[in-house]
Design brief:
Length: 327
């Protein structure tokens, strides 16, 4: 439509006609996206993917890090299962420390978190006190406990003597005693339970208080409230702590290795000889990197099997608020 002035007016759009959306998107150059991803991608291939592929190949070879690898086929794996007694000793000790320490750590962390829920206004102070030990370096913490567990002048034995429980003429040897060494490591590990305790504290504080009120009106006592309210709702936290605990315990090394070096007579019975220790000594003391790689891949296989079994069986005992996470 035109007017005498010469201007043209666009006709009105029909009612119900689609209106084109304005173009607000900004196109990002593909080169820029690639450059942003490059640091992580390069790090993954250089420091994760390539070492894994190389170690898998080396597990079928003999390699002393000086001469070129020599192909052996499956000899390293046959040696592992049929000709290496230390392998079975290390494997047994690792399974023992895993099966024993994880339930104790979970129970202790949950009990500590429960006490903190009753602390009232001083909760933050006690939370900090409980968490601080987990920030102490592992080496420093192990040295402290090696001094505490020293048989003849350690604080623990002197305290037990004052209570009349032991005699310093024949004191408990702790790390030197094959029957007490692994238990000493477990006690030492409970000192740094703060990181796990914080997770359990968050889970306990997330439980709706009305559930306890309803259970109390139905006549449930404290134990019944814990059994039928607290424990089922805490199973996701217990499951998470169990999975991470299994993965960590299969790699247990630093505390045991340092404690072994501080014993009086040395760990002659190999009671603190764990799987990661066997890998370390094979690789960096015997310089048999091929066999150490085979040991490492078997550890990865066992860890994956244990994790998958826990993921499958969790459907029977883990209760999520919105149903199970794994259908």
């Amino acid at each position: 439509m035109s007017f005498p002035s010469g201007k043209t007016v666009r006709p009105l759009r029909k009612q119900g006609a689609a209106v084109p959306a304005p173009k607000h998107g900004v196109s990002t150059p593909k080169t820029f996206i690639f450059m942003c991803m490059l640091p992580w991608t390069a790090g993954f291939f250089l420091f994760t993917a390539y070492p894994m592929i190389a170690s898998f190949y080396q597990s079928f070879t003999y390699w002393d890090m000086i001469n070129p690898p020599k192909w052996l086929g499956i000899d390293n794996y046959q040696r592992m299962f049929f000709h290496d007694d230390l392998f079975w000793k290390a494997f047994y000790n690792t399974m023992w420390i895993s099966a024993t320490s994880i339930p104790i750590r979970i129970a202790f962390a949950m009990f500590s978190a429960y006490l903190l829920t009753k602390a009232g206004k001083t909760r933050n102070i006690y939370r900090t006190i409980y968490f601080l030990p987990s920030m102490v370096p592992v080496v420093a913490g192990t040295l402290i406990f090696a001094w505490l567990f020293q048989p003849y002048f350690g604080v623990l034995n002197l305290f037990l003597e004052k209570l009349g429980l032991i005699s310093m003429k024949n004191p408990p040897m702790w790390f030197d005693n094959p029957g007490l060494s692994k238990w000493s490591l477990i006690i030492m590990g409970l000192w740094g339970i703060g990181d796990t305790m914080i997770i359990f504290l968050a889970g306990l504080l997330d439980i709706d208080k009305s559930l306890y009120e309803a259970a109390s009106l139905e006549g449930a006592n404290g134990f019944q409230q814990f059994r039928y309210v607290t424990l089922p709702l805490m199973t996701p936290v217990i499951f998470f702590s169990a999975v991470t605990g299994v993965i960590g315990s299969f790699q247990y090394f630093t505390q045991a290795y340092i404690a072994t070096g501080l014993t009086i007579n040395g760990d002659y019975t190999k009671s603190m000889y764990f799987y990661a220790t066997h890998i370390y000594e094979t690789a960096f003391q015997q310089y048999d990197m091929g066999y150490a790689a085979a040991l490492s891949w078997f550890l990865l296989f066992v860890t994956m099997i244990a994790t998958v079994l826990m993921l499958v069986t969790q459907k029977r005992w883990v209760h999520y608020p919105n149903g199970t996470m794994f259908k």
